[in-house]
Automatic annotation (TrEMBL):
InterPro entries tied to this protein: Histidine_triad_HIT, HIT-like, HIT-like_sf
PROSITE patterns: HIT_2
Domain HIT per the UniProt entry, residue ranges: 5-110
Pfam families, sorted: DcpS_C
Residues spanned by motif Histidine triad motif: 96-100
Gene Ontology terms, MF aspect: catalytic activity
Name of the protein described by the UniProt record: Histidine triad (HIT) protein
Residues at the active site: 98 (tele-amp-histidine intermediate)
Length: 110
Protein backbone atom coordinates (compact mmCIF):
# COMPACT_ATOMS: atom_id res chain seq x y z
CA UNK A 1 0.00 0.00 0.00
CA UNK A 2 1.58 3.25 -1.19
CA UNK A 3 0.88 5.47 1.80
CA UNK A 4 1.70 2.84 4.46
CA UNK A 5 4.75 3.58 6.64
CA UNK A 6 5.75 -0.06 7.13
CA UNK A 7 5.23 -0.86 3.41
CA UNK A 8 7.67 1.99 2.68
CA UNK A 9 10.20 0.56 5.17
CA UNK A 10 9.79 -2.91 3.63
CA UNK A 11 10.37 -1.45 0.13
CA UNK A 12 13.44 0.36 1.56
CA UNK A 13 11.94 3.74 0.66
CA UNK A 14 12.39 4.69 4.33
CA UNK A 15 15.35 3.66 6.49
CA UNK A 16 15.36 0.86 9.04
CA UNK A 17 18.07 -1.53 10.14
CA UNK A 18 16.76 -4.98 9.24
CA UNK A 19 17.76 -7.55 11.84
CA UNK A 20 15.98 -10.25 9.88
CA UNK A 21 14.59 -10.53 6.37
CA UNK A 22 12.94 -13.43 4.58
CA UNK A 23 10.58 -13.76 1.64
CA UNK A 24 7.58 -13.03 3.86
CA UNK A 25 8.73 -10.99 6.86
CA UNK A 26 11.20 -8.45 8.19
CA UNK A 27 12.28 -7.44 11.69
CA UNK A 28 13.76 -4.10 12.72
CA UNK A 29 14.21 -2.12 15.96
CA UNK A 30 11.34 0.09 17.12
CA UNK A 31 12.25 3.77 16.68
CA UNK A 32 10.92 4.59 20.16
CA UNK A 33 11.80 1.55 22.28
CA UNK A 34 9.71 0.65 25.33
CA UNK A 35 12.20 -1.92 26.60
CA UNK A 36 15.88 -2.84 26.36
CA UNK A 37 15.02 -4.99 23.36
CA UNK A 38 12.11 -3.74 21.26
CA UNK A 39 11.90 -5.26 17.82
CA UNK A 40 9.04 -5.12 15.35
CA UNK A 41 8.36 -8.27 13.34
CA UNK A 42 6.39 -7.31 10.27
CA UNK A 43 4.89 -9.40 7.45
CA UNK A 44 5.96 -8.03 4.06
CA UNK A 45 2.50 -8.16 2.53
CA UNK A 46 0.16 -5.39 3.64
CA UNK A 47 -2.30 -6.73 6.23
CA UNK A 48 -4.03 -4.02 8.24
CA UNK A 49 -4.35 -5.84 11.53
CA UNK A 50 -5.54 -8.96 13.34
CA UNK A 51 -9.06 -8.20 12.08
CA UNK A 52 -7.88 -8.87 8.52
CA UNK A 53 -6.50 -12.38 9.15
CA UNK A 54 -8.27 -15.41 7.76
CA UNK A 55 -7.82 -19.20 7.47
CA UNK A 56 -5.10 -18.69 4.86
CA UNK A 57 -3.00 -16.67 7.35
CA UNK A 58 -1.89 -19.65 9.44
CA UNK A 59 1.39 -20.29 7.61
CA UNK A 60 2.41 -16.65 7.82
CA UNK A 61 1.61 -16.49 11.54
CA UNK A 62 3.71 -19.59 12.15
CA UNK A 63 6.59 -17.96 10.28
CA UNK A 64 6.25 -14.78 12.35
CA UNK A 65 6.42 -16.75 15.61
CA UNK A 66 9.44 -18.67 14.35
CA UNK A 67 11.15 -15.32 13.71
CA UNK A 68 10.24 -14.34 17.29
CA UNK A 69 11.67 -17.67 18.49
CA UNK A 70 14.94 -16.99 16.65
CA UNK A 71 15.19 -13.42 18.01
CA UNK A 72 14.43 -14.53 21.59
CA UNK A 73 17.46 -16.82 21.34
CA UNK A 74 19.62 -14.25 19.50
CA UNK A 75 19.00 -11.65 22.23
CA UNK A 76 19.25 -14.19 25.10
CA UNK A 77 15.78 -13.37 26.36
CA UNK A 78 14.81 -16.88 27.51
CA UNK A 79 15.95 -16.26 31.07
CA UNK A 80 14.86 -12.62 31.33
CA UNK A 81 11.46 -11.10 30.61
CA UNK A 82 9.94 -11.01 27.18
CA UNK A 83 6.57 -10.45 25.56
CA UNK A 84 5.17 -10.65 22.05
CA UNK A 85 2.46 -7.99 21.74
CA UNK A 86 0.06 -7.15 18.93
CA UNK A 87 -1.99 -3.97 19.23
CA UNK A 88 -5.25 -3.48 17.37
CA UNK A 89 -8.04 -1.00 16.84
CA UNK A 90 -7.44 2.31 18.60
CA UNK A 91 -4.40 0.83 20.40
CA UNK A 92 -2.66 0.35 17.04
CA UNK A 93 -0.93 3.38 15.57
CA UNK A 94 0.63 1.96 12.39
CA UNK A 95 -2.11 0.17 10.40
CA UNK A 96 0.10 -2.61 9.02
CA UNK A 97 0.08 -5.79 11.13
CA UNK A 98 3.18 -6.06 13.33
CA UNK A 99 4.36 -7.98 16.36
CA UNK A 100 6.31 -6.21 19.11
CA UNK A 101 9.03 -8.37 20.68
CA UNK A 102 9.80 -6.68 24.00
CA UNK A 103 12.51 -7.96 26.25
CA UNK A 104 14.82 -7.16 29.14
CA UNK A 105 13.29 -4.54 31.42
CA UNK A 106 9.73 -3.86 30.37
CA UNK A 107 9.20 -0.22 31.37
CA UNK A 108 5.77 0.37 30.01
CA UNK A 109 3.04 -1.51 28.26
CA UNK A 110 3.00 -1.02 24.51
P1 LIG B 1 1.50 0.23 17.34
O1 LIG B 1 1.03 1.26 18.32
O2 LIG B 1 0.94 0.46 15.96
O3 LIG B 1 1.32 -1.18 17.83
O4 LIG B 1 3.08 0.39 17.26
C1 LIG B 1 3.73 1.10 16.26
C2 LIG B 1 5.19 1.13 16.64
O5 LIG B 1 5.92 1.56 15.51
C3 LIG B 1 5.50 2.09 17.79
O6 LIG B 1 6.11 1.37 18.85
C4 LIG B 1 6.44 3.11 17.16
O7 LIG B 1 7.47 3.54 18.02
C5 LIG B 1 6.98 2.36 15.94
N1 LIG B 1 7.33 3.22 14.82
C6 LIG B 1 6.58 4.25 14.31
N2 LIG B 1 7.20 4.80 13.24
C7 LIG B 1 8.37 4.10 13.08
C8 LIG B 1 9.43 4.21 12.13
O8 LIG B 1 9.45 5.05 11.23
N3 LIG B 1 10.46 3.33 12.27
C9 LIG B 1 10.48 2.39 13.26
N4 LIG B 1 11.53 1.59 13.32
N5 LIG B 1 9.48 2.25 14.17
C10 LIG B 1 8.45 3.10 14.07
ZN1 LIG C 1 1.61 -1.65 4.77
Amino acid sequence: MDSCLFCKIIKKELPAKFIFESENAVAFPDINPSAEVHILIVPKGHIGGVQDLDKESGGLLAEIYLVANQLVKQYNLEDSLYRVVVNGGKAQHVPHLHFHLLGGNLNKLV
